[in-house]
Automatic annotation (TrEMBL), chain A:
One MF annotation (Gene Ontology) recorded for this entry: ATP binding
Boundaries of every ABC transporter domain copy: 4-241
Lineage of the species this protein comes from: Bacteria, Pseudomonadati, Pseudomonadota, Gammaproteobacteria, Alteromonadales
Protein name stated in the entry: sn-glycerol-3-phosphate import ATP-binding protein UgpC
Keywords recorded for this protein, A-Z: ATP-binding, Cell membrane, Membrane, Nucleotide-binding, Transport
Keyword match Transport: yes
Record bears the keyword Nucleotide-binding: yes
UniProtKB/TrEMBL annotation, chain B:
Family, as annotated: Belongs to the binding-protein-dependent transport system permease family.
The protein's name: Multiple sugar transport system permease protein
Chain ranges of the ABC transmembrane type-1 domain: 66-277
GO biological process, one term: transmembrane transport
Membrane-topology descriptor: Multi-pass membrane protein
Transmembrane helix recorded as keyword: yes
Amino acid sequence: MAEIQLKSLAHSYSKHPSGAEDYAIRQMSHVWHNGGAYALLGPSGCGKSTMLNIISGLLQPSEGEVLFDNVKVNELSPKDRNIAQVFQFPVIYDSMTVYDNLAFPLRNVGMPKAKIKAKVDEIAAILELGEVLHNKARNLTADEKQKVSMGRGLVRDDVSAILFDEPLTVIDPQLKWKLRRKLKQIHEQFNITMVYVTHDQLEASTFADKIAVMYEGQIVQFGTPRELFESPNHTFVGYFIGSPGMNLIPVQRTETGVEFDGLPLHIHPELAKYAETSTSSNIKIGIRPEFVRLSNTPADDSYECHVKYIEDLGTYRIVTLELGSQTLLARIDEDQVIEGDTVHIGFPRQWLKLYIDEFLVEGATE
Amino acid sequence: MNKVSNNKAWWLVLPVFILVAFSALIPLMTVVNYSVQDIFGPGQAYFVGTEWFEEILGDERLQDSLGRQFLFSAAVLLIQIPLGIGIALMMPTRGKRASVCLIMLAIPLLIPWNVVGTIWQIFGRGDIGLFGWGLNQLGFDYNYTANTGDAWATVLLMDVWHWTPLVALLCYSGLKAIPEAFYQAAEIDRASKWAIFRYIQLPRLKSVLVIAVLLRFMDSFMIYTEPFVLTGGGPGSSTTFLSQTLTTMAIGQFDIGRAAAFSLIYFLIVLLVSWLFFTAITHLDKQK
């Protein structure tokens, strides 16, 4: 087990990177603490797998350092880093039985037979592979294969960390849920550092204690699912986390705060001060659809607004609204009644977030 | 449902039937026909039953030739298959160097058989051949025309030079087909080079190795031109293989009945051994 530290890390697949867009990972630093269950969340192509391969040692970073317990491991192979990794598509050694597959990583370091058997039996039981243990691995179903693939990582309980690269992609939803629970269970049992790459926020938040959101080759926020939801650090986090994502409204500075389409927005005075002193013209206000207040009667700080349409998603509804030139989304309970096609909406001040150059302006918490 | 009976559809099979008849059935049956007759000349053929077969199976000269043939094929397979795999493993996988290696490997395969024989015939000569002269200069008493061991070594060396590239190319393509993910997984699983070869590369080379083994067996078992040009079967009959014995019998002595019976037995041996190889390799790990 180890604490994994990434120091000024950057990676480019091209030999002579000329600009930021040539980098799969842009310079960043990060620490994965010992024994944590982490998720690395981001859209396809944001550099998640690259980062995983750099941590495991399959890839040498072009810049920066990878430290395991404060020891630089850049030049070490995955074997010497003692790290396990599970890939997106199952890799099984198809000439071997399931048992031999699971025993393979242990045999390779010459572990005694009896100990191997104990470990393999233990993991096979957890993954429910007992019945097929002595079958040839090539005859397994897709999800059994992925279980074997995962099992090869899990049999090694002395590893520095186990990395999962979207391991449940090929598995059907029912089993997905079950396997995620198993992983969590294994994590609690053995307390191994686990990093779980996914592009599915639900998967990330059910597995991990803390989620790192990655965007354009950088970790833009690292926090608990709640933190990511309530105060996204970056407009991308706001947009990517939540269903639907955060409403982001481009605004202009005024003497008293900010406005858009001539409509003043009542943000926290402290935030207004920031907006005032900023020289950037890229200012946005963000609010989650969950926090938009909807009412059939006007209030002091409400805006009259046209209802474009309402989607019923079973337990809740998504209302699409038009305010000035902006389209906003609001999420309301199923039982809230909306009369006609005009509503009055309000933005509770504590949920109005200010973004300058796409990054959150912090400091105003009520 | 009513089954429509339309026997005219059989006509569609006719072209294939004709093709197979001309390419395989008729020639084969001609040989079968010859093998049960004693033919003195046109219109002078007498049915002799299985007499030729009995004679051939008891012929010591042929038995010796068959023994040599098996020995040669075994040596060819034992050398060329591991060597070919080894070369394929050492080859660069991409870039210019890979292309250069591929071309270098392919050159021997492009040379006509009799030219290969001629090349080695000269190459091995003690007076003007670099190889033979070189060995003699180094103090070895090398002479492939007089010395049975030297003749065998030269014929084998020539065949290894000529055909190992085929095995290497087949294995190379097999290795290229292994997804990178397997090597990554193996690296993560701390597999040694040997373990990677034994558990990842070798199992995935199986299908190309079946082809390589079969091709090399059949080719080496039917070898004719190269040793004929190189040693002429000598010294004595030490490098006279089956096909040369057969040719001498059929064309040299015009002993068509005997030669036909011999051909059939020869054909059956190739068929049988190929079948054995194929079954053995494909059933190697068929169990559950």
